[in-house]
Amino acid sequence: MPSKKALNPPVGQCRQCWLHAYDSREQHKHLAPREDCPACVSHMGGKCPDSMIVKG
Ligand SMILES: [Zn+2]
Ligand SMILES: [Zn+2]
Prior knowledge:
This is PRL2-8. With 56 residues, the protein is mostly helical. The chain contains four helices and no strands.
């Protein structure tokens, strides 16, 4: 179960990146030990879709 913090990113943060950062173990448990997370990779380098950014 993600923590309250993991589910409540501050304004300007990407919901997915925040969740994967603060609930990393749970969000990445289906991956092999050194396997990249496709969700994280797709957002890498600031490519977060605007629709996933928390608005103020
Ligand atoms: Zn991830
Ligand atoms: Zn993102």
